[in-house]
């Protein structure tokens, strides 16, 4: 891993950018990650709205929600997963948008046409696994998925348009299409999973057709919204989609009137890249953005263990137009504000442990953070300086225990840290792959 000299300023990272009809005040985007803070039937809650609003209040230019399902006609939607498939869900979506706008941010809603072979809930809901072709079912490779018919594909596109209308009615500024990590759209785009002989298979243009039809459905039903697309550039497994194959596809997406694209790597077969732990290092997927930026003219977002310093360097090199941060903005929602105020040393870093963010989400629990106890309790657990300071000994030298109080009022409080404990940057998610519920961070 290359050691970088921190830049003297974050001029590029904090500079504005225009995307379609929107002007973002800076280049920082909250990566789409599920929060598991909704109701059992997939409606958003004030708790979830407060979580997103706090990231906007901290200066993040574009706050993107986790994935929202648009249809249960052909795939099951597990209890608790976010939905945008009925008009009854619009009020909750509006609550998120209003919280983000009230805090000065722009709001993006991520929509998924489905998970295809990666949906683990078919049996529980009495449904048959489906995919682009007769692919193996990820959770039982001895079973085969049923290929979707053209009529079913058109139904899903219709449902995407209906969900985009709800996003428009909720006031979303951006609609992002969930097209990465080997989920349903990705299964159509990738030759390793698409062996169709009709208009949805074969050439790169045909394999991109389903994605392009989803883009157009969003454009037609949310005419003022910027349309974004998240794509995995390199699947990172033998036989998976390569960077070169993706470059052919993204040209077609841009021709289909896509406005911006967020780039990562990985798949269910290479899950480490979906939730990159410390051992993958900083900037572990920036090359994905660079490869796409080489062949398109629309704004491109880079993600994958990016820090403020490396983000500035990425933008200065021209490898991307936007910096997409997920877990780092869970750890510190005020990241952008601190950079803007000249306080980069006060940014609370993500330790990439995947314990309470990804770890909780795997089991349907509301996300938290090992270094930020306010996550999910914004406005409830508010840390303020005490009126009665005391001398204390902190037992435990992990990241929370070894951090000196950052606020000026608390900085003079004497403290001691004693511990024989160790901290680990290792990721524990590998043992949980078979219980994965959704794609996550950046």
Please tell me about this protein's structure:
The chain has 442 residues and is of the alpha/beta class. It has 12 helices and 16 strands. It has helices at 46-57, 90-102, 150-169, 184-189, 204-207, 209-221, 243-255, 286-293, 308-317, 327-331, 335-340, 358-362; strands spanning 17-19, 22-24, 28-30, 62-69, 106-112, 130-131, 136-137, 140-144, 146-147, 174-178, 226-232, 260-264, 300-302, 322-325, 392-395, 415-418. The chain has an 8-stranded parallel barrel, surrounded by 6 helices. Helix 1 (46-57) runs parallel beside helix 2 (90-102). The protein is globular, with a radius of gyration of 21 Å. The two termini are 18 Å apart. 54% of the residues are buried.
The biggest sheet, with number of strands, parallel, antiparallel or mixed sense and barrel status, is: 8 strands, parallel, barrel
What multimeric state do the chains show? single chain
- Order of strands, widest sheet: 3-4-5-10-11-12-13-14
Helix content: 25-40%
Low-pLDDT sequence parts: 407-441
Query: Topology as H/E string?
Result: EEEHEHEEEEEHEHHHEHEHEHEHHHEE
Give the integer mean of the pLDDT values: 90
Q: Report the count of strand segments.
A: 16
Please report which band the strand proportion falls in: under 5%, 5-15%, 15-25%, 25-35%, 35-45% or over 45%: 15-25%
Question: What is the gist of this entry?
Answer:
This protein is 26% helix and 15% strand. The protein has 442 residues and is α/β, with parallel strands linked by helices.
